[in-house]
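## retry 2 of 3
previous attempt timed out at serialization; input unchanged, resubmitting
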Amino acid sequence: MNYSIADFILHTEGKHSNIAECGLGSFKPFEIEGDCSAEPTMILHTDCPISNSTHPTTKVIHTFEFEQEYATGELARYAEGYRFSTSREGVDYLMIKRDGSNIVESNFGNFEKVDPSLLRFGLWIMLGIVIAPLGAIAIHSSVVVKEHQGILCLGESGTGKSTHTRLWRENIEGAKLLNDDSPIIRMIDGECRVYGSPWSGKTHCYVNKWVPVRGLIRLSQAPHNRIHRLPALSAIGAVLPSCPPAFAYDNALQDHICNTVSDILSCTPVYHLECLPDAAAAMLSYSTIFNK
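## retry succeeded, writing output
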C-alpha cells in the first residue's frame, strides 16, 4: 500500500499493511490508488521478527503515559538507530529505524489484531523521525484556511486552539478547517506550506491538501483581546514548544527541528494573541493577519 502524506510517500508491506483497514480510517483519504512510481520517503515493513530482546534500548529519549488509553510508550536509541515501543495489556508494539535508512521495521503485523491507537501514535512518531531531516515537522496546532492560505493556532492543550479556529469558521466567511491537531508544516523552494494529515485529534478532519502559510498565532487566555507580532527570538520561543516534544531530548532531531523552524520564521510572521473565547478575538486576528 502507498499513502501520500504532506507529499511524502509512505509505502507499507506485510500483514496489516493496509493500515486504513486496521481501524485507522483517517489514512483512507491519503491512499494512493493504483501503482505509485514515486520513490518512497518511508518504507514500513509490518511483520518483522523484532522484539525488545533482539533490539534492546541503549538510551531512553522520552517516555509517554497514555492515561486514558491505559498504555505506555518509549522513544529510545538502540545500537543502530531509533526505536519506539508501545505497550498495553501485555501487547508490545515495536518500531525501529536504522540510522541513515528510510526503512522502518515493525512487529505489529505479527499479531492477529491491531490496536489502532497504539499503531496511530507509532506511525506519527516514526514518520516524524524520517521527515525531520527533510525540513518537515508535525506541529501541534489547529489550522484554519482563508483565501487559500493557512493560519496555524498554537498553544498548550486547553488554551483554546480549536475554539479559536471554530470562531473563525463561524464568523469569517469562507474560513475552513484543514487540521485540528497535528498538521505537517514544511519548506519547499523557499515557501512555507501546511498540509492536512491523518492525525487530527478528536476532530474528524482528514484533508489531503496543502496551502501556503500566512501566519502562526500563539494563543494565551486573557480577560481581553490583544494581538501583536513577535520579534525573531520571541517567535522561536512561541513555535518550538508546539514541535514534537520528545524530539527535544535528542540532539540530532532537535537540530533538524531548529533548522526548519528557522527557515519557517525567515518568511512567516508569528503573532501572540491574548484573547477571550469570543467572535471579537477571531475578527481581531483575522483583520491583523490579512491587513483588513
